[in-house]
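This part of the workshop introduces the protein records we will be handling. A record pairs a protein's sequence with a compact description of its fold. As an example, a complete record with its sequence and its structure tokens follows.

_____
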Amino acid sequence: MKGLLVKDLRLLLSQSRFYIILLIVLFVSGTSTQATFVSGYIAVVFPMFAVSTISYDEYDNGNAFLFTLPFSRKEYVLAKYIFGLLLCVFGNILGT
């Protein structure tokens, strides 16, 4: 399970263009008087990262390779839930 979480984290770190856009949006919106937008935006965008890792796993028959490794489908789903929960908690902490 630790390997799946590390894989998802490395997958997210490889999306550098999106992080640049995210920082620009946060900087522009952070200079305004509406601080609620920034916290709400972060709380919505970070869980979407977890959903995007599922589509990256499906890309180019990646699931067929992943499921040849020694873990079950239940462990894969559990790792995705844990990763999504970690991103939600981190996003909410960062947003507040």
